[in-house]
Amino acid sequence: MNKFSLKKNKHFNKTLLIFSFLFCLLSIPVKAAPSDANAADNQIVLTNSQKGVRISGDVGAVLLPVAGLTAILINKDWEGLKQGALAGVTTLGVTTALKYIVKKERPDRSDFHSFPSMHTSVSFTAASFIQRRYGWKWGAPAYLLSAYVGWSRVYGKKHDWWDVATGAAIGVGSAYIYTRPFARKHNLVFTPVAGDGHYGLYASMNF
C-alpha cells in the first residue's frame, strides 16, 4: 500500500467515526436544564398509546441515519460520507442553538426545549440525504418514515406541529445545501440509440 492510499484510508476512517458519532448525538434528546425542574414536576401523564407511538418514533429517528450510513458503505461512497457529515453538523448546530434560544415549553411540560424537534430534523436530514444522493426510489420510503417520526412527536405530546415543521425544514435544508446526486458525481449518462432497425439505450458511468 502506497503512502497516498494509507493516508486516504486514515482520512476515511476518521470521517466515518465522526459521522457515526454526530448522528448518535443527534438521536439523543437535549437534557432539561436545572431551570426546567418545575416544569418536569407538572409533566402530563401519557396514555399507553401515546407512549407506544413515542417509542416507535424514537426507533425511526435512529433507523433513518443508520439507513443513510448503510447506503454509503454499500456504495463505497466516501464523497457522500463527507456530505452527510456536513449536513449532520449543520442540523445539530442549528437545532440545538434554537432550542436554547427560543426555550419553548413542550406540550407535556417536561422541559423548555420543544422548538424545534430534534427527532424530526435528524430524520429529515437522513431522508433528504438519501433522496438527494441516491434518488427517489430510496428517498420516498425514507421521507414517509421521517414524516411518521414527526407525527409521533406531536401525538406523543413532545412537540407542537410548528416544532416539527421547523425541524423538517432544517433537516431538508441542511441536506440539500451539502448533498450532490451520486449519479452526477459518477457521470451517469443515458443516451437513446437508434439505427439499422434497432433501438436501445446506452448507459455509461465512471468508477
Which series of helices and strands comes N to C? HHHHHHHHEE
For the record, the count of structural domains works out to 1
CATH structural class: Mainly Alpha
- Total number of helices: 8
Q: How many strands appear in the DSSP assignment?
A: 2
SS class? mainly alpha
How far apart are the termini?
Answer: 20 Å
Overall helicity: 55-70%
If classified by CATH, what would the architecture be?
Up-down Bundle
Beta percentage is 5-15%
Rg on CA atoms, Å: 21 Å
Coarse morphology? globular
Summarize the biggest pleated sheet: 2 strands, antiparallel
Uncertain segments are 1-8, 25-37, 185-194
Strand order within the widest beta sheet:
1-2
Keywords:
single chain, 207 residues, mainly alpha, Vanadium-containing Chloroperoxidase, domain 1, 8 helices, globular
Question: How would the blueprint of this fold be written?
Answer:
Blueprint: H1 3-26, H2 37-41, H3 48-75, H4 78-102, H5 118-134, H6 136-155, H7 161-178, H8 182-185, E1 189-195, E2 198-204
Antiparallel strand pairs: 1-2
Helix pairs in contact: 1-4, 3-4, 3-5, 3-6, 4-5, 4-7, 5-6, 5-7, 6-7
Structural summary, described in words:
The chain is mainly alpha-helical and 207 residues long. It has a single domain, classed as Vanadium-containing Chloroperoxidase, domain 1 (Up-down Bundle), CATH 1.20.144. The chain has helices at residues 3-26, 37-41, 48-75, 78-102, 118-134, 136-155, 161-178, 182-185, and strands spanning 189-195, 198-204. A two-stranded antiparallel sheet has the order 1-2. Strand 1 and strand 2 form a beta hairpin. The longest helix is centred in the N-terminal third of the chain and has 28 residues, at 48-75.
